[in-house]
Amino acid sequence: MAPWPVAYGSSLVPTLIFAGRGLIALYHGVNAERKRDKVTFPAFRNHLSGDCGVFLLPMVQSWLLPLFWFSAEDRLDSLPVHVGCAPTLPRFRYDQ
Questions:
Q1: What's the confidence (pLDDT) of residue 3?
Q2: Domains of the chain by residue range
């Protein structure tokens, strides 16, 4: 039997996230406001689709999924620190 999170589909979460980002990039590539976006957004879509496919490979899931979940947890842990500190710090002005 598969370990606990995999049994409930946690191995599909990164795939769904990257697939969703790929579809968003495709939408913005089709409905681009600038000329360059018609080239760059489909390129991002291809990259995200490749990432989506990599997460489906069983031989890579054993070491890639823990890295994905650790980075997701690390980002969520640092979010309250950023929200608390960012408004209190002085802004760096580029024009001075």
A1: 57
A2: 7-85
CA distances for 44 relative to 13, 22, 71, angstroms: 19, 7, 21
Packing angle of the helix pair 13-30, 37-54 (nearest 10 deg):
170
Q: Is the pLDDT of residue 4 over 70?
A: no
Q: What are the structure tokens assigned to 43, written together?
A: 């390129």
Amino acid at 32: A
pLDDT surpasses 60 at 95: yes
> Do 41 and 22 contact (CB within 8 A), yes or no?
no
Q: Note the pLDDT of residue 8.
A: 64
Cα angle value 43/46/52 (rounded, 5°): 145
- Kindly report the number of other CB atoms within 10 A of residue 13's CB atom: 16
